[in-house]
Write a structure and sequence with these properties.
single chain; 505 residues; alpha/beta; TIM Barrel; eight-stranded parallel beta barrel; two-stranded parallel sheet; globular; beta-glucosidase activity; hydrolase; Glyco_hydro_1_AS; Beta-glucosidase
């Protein structure tokens, strides 16, 4: 086997401002939804809904404290003060790109100011320039779970139409400010996550609504406003930075039927089709019929103006990016089957897959299937912008981490990406999630580590915050410098060694 990765393939890594930067109240930054996300050591790491849930009481308590121990996203890994050091390490690994996000509240602290915060603008300019100095192309997410808390308190988050205008001002400001530095952009991180954690994604506090149905209607309205804001941002980008590209970002939830029972196959098809809905709107510029039928059946009154619909149709995205962590199984007999948790949801355990310590079903082949399905569906370039495995790492006395388990994980996923490219998929690049250890999105802890670089801090913020290269750091560096050839050089070396070894009789 050989490498099919294109010469200009964008190898790199990804982080988010709210999980890495820290400095939550420095240089004029306002509070975001991430700043009220609490570390919950008393809640099971597999209890996905409880880990993410935020109530009105939770928000009120968080606003009254400056605590950074139980609000870990306020401290992150102090990337805000370490970014030059960290970027040099990424450059040493040979990164072609780094996916980052801009914290909206660093630019507009409350989200509705007339003028931007200059210190926030200066910080990101300096960071992007540092990336350029190290030969790294910025890939920038406009909104990565970082909505200003003020807009939640005073405008009901994205349910309010006003959020579209506030976001348009933010996006236009950063496009004009960084038009000489950034050409790849994403609008909303995992825009499909609105129902998994509505507060984090669109600022919806569920207890504000009368019942489950009213909450669902509000979430769909908030989602529509994000669709509109994404199209508006795409329009702005093309006017302000000719040649720049805007991508959509989806959580790819690959769902299998437990058996070949047609009813279970239909269940899996529905799950995958529902997952694609979010990309359908941003790639095709219109709502799929099955979603409109669902609105009608449930009596949902989603305000969608003619101008909205024209904007969606006229300003579709240039590429589709997605996160991929695990696959899931649906069954008619789910209540009788063993369950597994994960970073997405709880589902039926797949007996053919290994399960991580956080309950994820590790499925490299599922990534290949996802790439082929998405490319066949949309026929636009794809970009894997999140993939990785959270693990408990141990720092050795020599200042490294022997993380062969992480290398094995990435090796198998990279090989499946290569096969997908061989199958005809147009793949722009790959950014591993949490390329340096960061605070976990769901559990708000440090023990769940993803990176090639170890950060010396624990779940409670104790440690030196020094950076250490893991074994995987050097392995990934070889993958990048050889553009994937090293994946097969390892295999060839093992085959040759086996041939030279004397047979044991």
């Amino acid at each position: 086997m050989k490498s099919y990765f294109p010469k200009d393939f964008l190898w790199g890594g990804a982080i988010a401002a709210n999980q890495a930067e820290g400095a939550w109240n420095e240089d004029g930054k306002g509070m975001s939804v991430a700043d009220v996300a609490r570390f919950k050591p008393d809640v099971s790491v597999e209890d996905y809904k409880s880990q993410w849930h935020t109530s009105l009481a939770d928000i009120a308590i968080a606003k009254e404290t400056d605590d950074t121990v139980y609000y870990p996203k306020r401290r992150g890994i102090d990337f805000y003060h370490h970014y030059k050091e960290d970027i040099r390490l990424f450059g040493e690994m040979g990164f072609k790109t780094l996916r980052v996000s801009i914290a909206w509240t660093r630019i507009f602290p409350n989200g509705n100011e007339e003028e931007p915060n200059q210190k926030g603008l200066d910080y990101y300019r300096d960071m992007f320039e540092e990336l350029r100095k190290n030969g790294i192309e910025p890939l920038v997410t406009l909104s990565h779970y970082e909505m200003p808390l003020y807009l939640v308190d005073h405008y009901d988050g994205w349910v309010s139409r006003e959020a579209v205008g506030f976001f348009a001002k933010f996006s236009e400001t950063v496009f004009r400010e960084y038009k000489d530095l950034v050409k790849y952009w994403l609008s909303f991180n995992e825009i499909d996550s609105v129902f998994r954690h509505p507060f984090t994604t669109v600022g919806v506090v569920e207890e504000k609504y009368a019942d489950k149905k009213a909450t669902e209607e509000a979430i769909y309205q908030a989602l529509h406003h994000q669709f509109v804001a994404s199209a508006q941002a795409t329009k702005q980008l093309r006017e302000i930075i000719p040649g720049a590209q805007m991508g959509a970002m989806l959580t790819k939830t690959m769902t299998y039927a437990e058996t070949c029972d047609p009813e279970e196959v239909l269940m899996a098809q529905k799950a995958n089709r529902d997952n694609h809905f979010y990309a359908d709107v941003q790639v095709f510029g219109e709502y799929p019929k099955h979603v409109l039928n669902y609105f009608e059946e449930n009596g949902f009154q989603i305000e969608r103006t003619e101008e909205d619909l024209r904007l969606l149709k006229d300003y579709t995205v240039d590429f589709l990016s997605f996160s991929y962590y695990m696959s899931m199984v649906v069954s008619k007999n789910a209540d009788k089957r063993e369950k597994v948790g994960g970073n997405l949801t709880t589902g039926v355990k797949n007996p053919y897959l290994e399960t991580s310590e956080w309950g994820w079903q590790v499925d490299p082949v599922g990534l290949r299937i996802s790439l082929i399905d998405l490319y066949d569906a949309y026929r636009i370039p794809l970009f894997v912008v999140e993939n990785g495995i959270g693990s408990t790492d141990v720092l050795t006395k020599d200042g490294t981490v022997e993380d062969d388990y992480r290398i094995d994980y990435f090796r198998e996923h990279f090989k499946q990406m290569n096969l997908a490219i061989k199958d005809g998929v147009e793949l722009m690049g790959y950014t591993s999630w949490g390329c340096i250890d960061i605070v976990s999105a769901s559990t708000s802890q440090m023990a769940k580590r993803y990176g090639f670089i170890y950060v010396d801090t624990d779940d409670y913020g104790k440690g030196t915050y020094n950076r250490y290269k893991k074994k995987s750091f050097h392995w990934y560096k070889d993958v990048i410098v050889t553009n994937g050839d090293s994946l097969y050089a390892e295999q060839e070396s093992e085959r040759t060694a086996a041939e030279k070894s004397p047979a044991i009789i």
